[in-house]
Amino acid sequence: MDVEILLTELNFKGIRSSGPGGQHVNKTASKVEVAFDLESSRALSDIEKDRLRDKLSSKLSADGILTLQCGETRSQHRNKAIVIERLVSLLQENLKVAKKRKKTKPSKNAIERRLKSKKERAFKKSNRKPPRIE
């Protein structure tokens, strides 16, 4: 993933925020919405696009566009920086390939200890029962 090319492909839009700020909120568009077109991106290889399509399927629109918003601060510039950081970290996190799990087997000693403790518990519980009279 080439972050520099990715940053040129982002589409930003300013929206009126609903957060703190009083009258300032009603006058300025401080919330930032970023749209990233995954399908036509030159910053990602085909393999990376496939991986992101699978992992981010719930966040992608039908056209393959990933949209994120940020309205945390009163400053549009800070919101823009925050949303870019979130987008890049989201993409990097979902591009990681999970390691395959190696099957492990308990050691013979661990198996013996488990069986021994089971037998001890069973003996203890059987001693709690009243004796059977026939």
Automatic annotation (TrEMBL):
<dbReference type="InterPro" id="IPR045853">
    <property type="entry name" value="Pep_chain_release_fac_I_sf"/>
</dbReference>
<feature type="compositionally biased region" description="Basic residues">
    <location>
        <begin position="115"/>
        <end position="134"/>
    </location>
</feature>
<feature type="region of interest" description="Disordered">
    <location>
        <begin position="98"/>
        <end position="134"/>
    </location>
</feature>
<feature type="domain" description="Prokaryotic-type class I peptide chain release factors">
    <location>
        <begin position="16"/>
        <end position="32"/>
    </location>
</feature>
<dbReference type="GO" id="GO:0072344">
    <property type="term" value="P:rescue of stalled ribosome"/>
</dbReference>
<comment type="similarity">
    <text>Belongs to the prokaryotic/mitochondrial release factor family.</text>
</comment>
<dbReference type="GO" id="GO:0003747">
    <property type="term" value="F:translation release factor activity"/>
</dbReference>
<protein>
    <submittedName>
        <fullName>Ribosome-associated protein</fullName>
    </submittedName>
</protein>
<dbReference type="InterPro" id="IPR000352">
    <property type="entry name" value="Pep_chain_release_fac_I"/>
</dbReference>
<dbReference type="GO" id="GO:0043022">
    <property type="term" value="F:ribosome binding"/>
</dbReference>
<dbReference type="Pfam" id="PF00472">
    <property type="entry name" value="RF-1"/>
</dbReference>
<dbReference type="GO" id="GO:0004045">
    <property type="term" value="F:peptidyl-tRNA hydrolase activity"/>
</dbReference>
